[in-house]
Design goal:
By secondary structure, this protein is α/β, with parallel strands linked by helices. It is 38% helix and 14% strand. The strands form two sheets. An eight-stranded parallel beta barrel has the order 1-4-5-6-7-8-9-10. The protein has a two-stranded antiparallel sheet with strand order 2-3. The radius of gyration is 20 Å and the shape is globular. The chain binds beta-D-mannopyranose.
């Protein structure tokens, strides 16, 4: 009888927590380095304190400058570096010297070392070209691309070479003593939209999950890269938790869950606040169910044509949610008006300083004070 009760209890426990959802305290990669484990713990600790602010290509270029050492539009305005730095690996698959936005990979490597030594957080996206058509990430002329890169597909061997090239770069991110620097890797992003070759209408749920798992297993297993935390991030078109999790590859493959959302001028501030708040509710609930971190992995308002956008719109949209970070997109040097962080003289400069000074927004100085993962 006792055995039966115990068995029933075990079965109940298992069904309450399906195998995909078994909580694991550490990174998804079971062989993650101790620095990566510490990084994840540090991110969790920071989430208890507030929301880290991130900026794409922060150190690479800004409005009116490109690559001088130590520059940052965020620092120019607030006196403080961001806590999170986004960079993109598009074109590393070809071993190109520069990424798709002309940032030299050698510079990126130097930035990663600098960020690590001051205790910041690094996250990489990958706008990888289309391996079947040789077009770019936005080439959606074929819906067979994901199938073609999976084992048995006609682009599989080519895709593996691309992953080798990616792995070589990620594996080269080392501190002075040769230790691998942990980074958040966010592949196959905005997959609920249909503008990248891995998007919603371009592959089946099974193909997407296989793509994710293959990427993870190849990098962490085959290539022994154990300095990666994996971020799963959709676009903003999320109706409910089920839809958000439809292509979730499983708890053993993900460390952080997020989504990307931009304010469109025609939609207005209230719609941005309402939608970000609504989708954050879904994503943070999913992340809590699965024991993962949550984030607003990309956000912004192109050109920020609103002097109080930071405290008046962005902050109200996120403030009620327990998220690790929010990251605004790049201040392009090659696309006039395509910027998402303020710069000296921009009309939202003063408001950004107020945003920086909120006790719950975390920038580099806050992380230094907390000793995030060092
Ligand atoms: C987009 C734009 C593009 C850029 C791409 C990858 O949102 O900023 O100009 O090439 O991201 O960074």
């Amino acid at each position: 009888m006792k055995r039966i009760i115990m068995l029933t209890a075990a079965v109940m426990l298992l069904t309450a927590c399906p195998s995909e959802q078994v909580m694991r305290p550490g990174p998804a990669d079971p062989a993650a380095t101790s620095e990566t484990v510490k990084m994840l713990d540090g991110l969790k600790a920071a989430t208890e304190r507030g929301i880290m602010f991130g900026h794409q290509d922060d150190l690479s270029y800004g409005i009116g400058w490109i690559y001088p050492d130590g520059e940052s539009d965020v620092k120019r305005v607030s006196g403080d570096y961001p806590a999170v730095y986004g960079m993109d690996l598009g074109d590393i698959e070809h071993r190109a010297p520069v990424n798709l936005d002309s940032v030299p990979f050698d510079h990126m490597k130097t930035f990663v070392g600098e960020i690590w030594s001051r205790g910041g957080v690094i996250t990489f996206s990958w706008h990888v070209d289309n391996p079947l058509t040789n077009g770019d990430a936005w080439d959606i002329t074929s819906d067979r691309v994901v199938a073609s890169v999976l084992p048995g597909g006609e682009s599989h061997e080519k895709f593996k070479v691309w992953l080798d090239n990616l792995a070589e770069f990620l594996g080269s991110l080392r501190d002075e003593s040769g230790l691998a620097i942990p980074v958040i890797f966010r592949p196959w992003h905005e997959h609920t939209g249909s503008w990248f070759w891995w998007g919603q209408k371009l592959c089946t749920d099974e193909e997407f999950v296989s793509l994710w798992r293959f990427t993870f297993d190849y990098l962490c297993g085959e290539k022994n890269l154990n300095n990666l935390l994996f971020a799963y991030s959709s676009s903003g078109d999320i109706a409910n938790k089920e839809q958000y999790l439809r292509r979730y590859p499983g708890d053993g493959y993900v460390d952080l869950m997020g989504f990307d959302y931009y304010q469109m001028p025609q939609a207005g501030n209230q719609s941005f606040v309402r939608e970000v708040d609504r989708v954050l509710g879904i994503v943070t609930a999913a992340a809590a169910d699965h024991g993962k971190l949550a984030a607003l992995t990309e956000a912004g308002y192109e050109g920020i044509p609103d002097s109080t956008w930071w405290t008046g719109t962005l902050w109200p949209a996120v403030k009620n949610h327990k998220i690790s970070y929010l990251l605004v997109w790049r201040n392009a040097h090659n696309k006039p008006g395509h910027f998402y962080a303020p710069w000296p003289g921009h009309l939202s400069e003063k408001d950004f300083i107020d945003f920086h000074n909120l006790p719950e927004t975390l920038f580099q100085n806050d992380l230094t004070e907390m000793g995030l993962y060092k």
